[in-house]
Amino acid sequence: MDDILAQEWLKSMGYNISEIEFVEAVKVKGSFKADIQVKINITIKLKNLLDVQNIQVKLVSNPQGFNQIDKRRVVKYQELWNIPEKVMSILKLYCGETKPNKPNTRDSRRMFMDEFEINEQELVLSFLNENKTLIVSDILKGRGQFAAEWMLVILKIENENLRWVLKPINFVLNYFGNGQICITKQGNFKIGRIGLQRKGGDGGRPSANMLQFKINPCELF
To answer: How far apart are CA 221 and CA 42, in angstroms?
Structure first.
């Protein structure tokens, strides 16, 4: 294995390079949090061991930019987190799946969270607080065979040296999930260091009405 950068990544993951016979990286297909699955063949005292690591890769060119980590229709999140019907109704109005039921909203297509009644805001905030650990894990790590175990952030800026950071997923969960859940001045949400908002864009197509979670991966530097 002659790739110096790959060797540095493996060292960061705790491997002894001299014990590795070969490494195979396979791109994960489908909607999973891991982007690549790395199979590492290790020889220790004449015994062969095959280790498998799932890595989520974020390739970025702007250290101040935000990266989408998850987006789905509200009903898909209900299937994951058993969202109560009252909270679902509020989120559908927030995303624009349901049109506003009151006049003089800032956007005729949807409502911002600060336009809801206080008791409605509290319903959503209460749900997010009660399910914070599950939500943060699902949007960053995922579930099942291809759940991410590491996050690799590669910062590539023109005319500058490539920078990278590789962190265990539990560090990532704690870092981005740490902090209060609140409604922002813009009428969206913050869950620790994670932004939650209506997706928007897409030329007004129905996909614009999805919920979207965002982070700035370069904060891991």
So the answer is: 29
pLDDT of residue 1: 46
What is the Rg, in whole angstroms, of the alpha carbon atoms belonging to the chain? 21
Asked if residue 127 belongs to a domain, the reply is: yes
Q: Does any domain span residue 72?
A: yes
Domain presence at residue 40? no
CA distances to 19, 142, 178 from 39, rounded to whole Å, are: 14, 20, 31
Query: Consecutive 10-residue runs of the chain (221 residues): their mean pLDDT?
Result: 77 84 81 79 62 86 87 94 96 93 86 95 97 96 89 87 91 96 96 94 80 94 92
Name the CA dihedral angle for 99, 101, 102, 103, rounded to a multiple of 10 degrees: 50
Q: How many CB atoms lie within 10 A of CB 133?
A: 10
Q: Say which residue the tokens 């989520």 belong to.
A: 56
